């Protein structure tokens, strides 16, 4: 009986955490449904407003293979936090490109944190308060010591992969 109780507690905790991911709300600022707080890649790319653009942009985007080869040794210890708006045109454009790059680099999803914000660029429970988010999407790169190594804000200067290489190759 004790094992069943323990199992149920674990199942409840897992279910409670799962409900926090991919949370949908009606955003009064944007007057539409959005995702808020942490999201999974699957939750993001299947959200109708994101899916429409993802289905076009992901297959069409061709990352620079030479840059990808240069990035491979640099990204292995990196963690990446992306703050985005499902309502934001730049987020809808850049996220499919980013995922195409991550797939080319074989970066596991566990190394990427996706945080969706509302029209005021806020998430619930102070989730983004310490990140100084002014525009979205914001891609924040952290090294193995959890120190921020750089950001790409809104749109890359050249391309996502070239801007990533510039950030990650700095000593």
Q: How would you characterize this protein structure?
A:
Residues 1-18 form the signal peptide. This is Thioredoxin. Keywords: Signal. InterPro entries: Thioredoxin-like_sf (IPR036249). It is globular, with a radius of gyration of 17 Å. α3 (48-60) packs across α5 (89-105) and α4 (65-75) packs parallel to α6. Mean pLDDT is 90; it is low at 1-19. The protein has one domain: Glutaredoxin. The termini are far apart. The protein has six helices and six strands. It has 171 residues and is an alpha+beta fold. A hairpin with a 5-residue loop joins β5 (138-142) and β6. It is 44% helix and 20% strand.
In short:
Helix content is 44%, strand content 20%. It is an alpha+beta fold and 171 residues long.
Key features of this structure:
171 residues; alpha+beta; 6-stranded mixed sheet; 6 helices; 44% helix
What's the CATH C level? Alpha Beta
Number of domains: 1
Query: How far is the first residue's CA from the last residue's CA?
Result: 56 Å
Q: In terms of per-residue confidence, which ranges show pLDDT below 50 for 5 or more consecutive residues? A: 1-19
Strand content: 15-25%
| CATH topology (fold) name | Glutaredoxin
The CATH architecture name reads 3-Layer(aba) Sandwich
Order of helices and strands: HEEHHHEHEEEH
Going by CATH, the homologous superfamily would be Glutaredoxin
- Alpha-beta content class: alpha+beta
Give the strand order, joined by hyphens, for the main sheet: 1-2-4-3-5-6
Shape: globular
Helices, by number, come to 6
Q: Report the major sheet.
A: 6 strands, mixed
Number of strands: 6
Helix content: 40-55%
Mean pLDDT, nearest integer?
A: 90
């Amino acid at each position: 009986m004790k094992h069943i109780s323990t199992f149920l507690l674990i199942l409840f905790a897992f279910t409670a955490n799962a409900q926090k991911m991919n949370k949908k709300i009606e955003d009064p600022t944007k007057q539409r449904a959005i995702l808020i707080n942490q999201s999974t890649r699957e939750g993001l790319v299947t959200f109708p407003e994101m899916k429409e653009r993802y289905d076009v942009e992901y297959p069409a985007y061709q990352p620079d293979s030479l840059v990808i080869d240069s990035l491979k040794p640099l990204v292995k210890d990196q963690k990446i936090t992306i703050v985005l708006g499902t309502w934001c045109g730049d987020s809808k454009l850049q996220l499919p490109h980013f995922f195409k790059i991550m797939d080319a680099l074989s970066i596991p999803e566990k190394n990427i944190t996706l945080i969706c914000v509302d029209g005021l660029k806020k998430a619930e429970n102070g989730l983004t308060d310490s990140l100084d988010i002014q525009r979205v999407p914001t891609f924040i790169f952290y090294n193995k010591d959890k120190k921020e190594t750089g950001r790409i804000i809104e749109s890359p200067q050249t391309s996502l992969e070239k801007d990533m290489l510039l950030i990650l190759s700095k000593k």
